[in-house]
Amino acid sequence: MRFKTQALVRVLLVGCFIATSLRAIDHDVAMAQGRKAVVITRIFTGQDGLAHAEDIELNLNARGATDMLKATGAEFSVRPPTAGANPRNTAATDPGAPGWHTGPARQFVITLSGNSEVEVSGGVHVAAGPGHINLIEDTTGKGHITRNFGPDDRIALTIPLAEGVVIEGVRKPRTR
Asked: pLDDT tens digits for 65-120?
């Protein structure tokens, strides 16, 4: 009788272990399928010498992270509102207007607080609020215009990338 009781306890323990393991596996699968995508906006110089924008949904590994990207530094900055900037203005800026500039280096610019936009060719306006990540790659050509919207300053984190860093993911062009 004692042998049957011990065997029954072992079977129950193994059964509980298997049920718990299967439940954890199902939970992990559900979590992987339900992860929020990490999307960045790439600002780059096209063949026409003008700045364009595309969104990149980054490739993530099983842990929900990208491969480690090499950077050359990091800079925090406080950027005051741009005089006369209006977030409701979606018109294309005259190509001869002042304010067009290229990025100083290939870099991430992450908005920590405040709001801004980057305007590229064709009047495409890319809004950037807290948490938005821009990958600035238009280091040549006409460039882009950056506008910071008030009333508060915009705080940004700039991270220049090391030479040869590849950003992998699904790309989708931004249009008006």
From this structure: 999 999 999 999 999 999 999 999 999 999 999 999 999 999 999 999 999 999 99
* Predicted TM-score (pTM) above 0.85: no
Q: SS in 3 state form for 6-23?
A: HHHHHHHHHHHHHHHHHH
> What is the structure's pLDDT at 17?
47
SS3 1: coil
| Residues comprising the chain, all counted | 176
Question: CATH says 39-173 is which class?
Answer: mainly beta
Structure tokens at 83: 């005089």
Q: Which of 45, 74, 72, 62 is nearest to 144 (CA)?
A: 45
Can you tell me whether residue 32 is helix, strand or coil? helix
DSSP string, 99-110: T-B--SSSEEEE
What's the token pair of residue 16? 């509980």
Cα(176)–Cα(167) distance, integer angstroms: 24
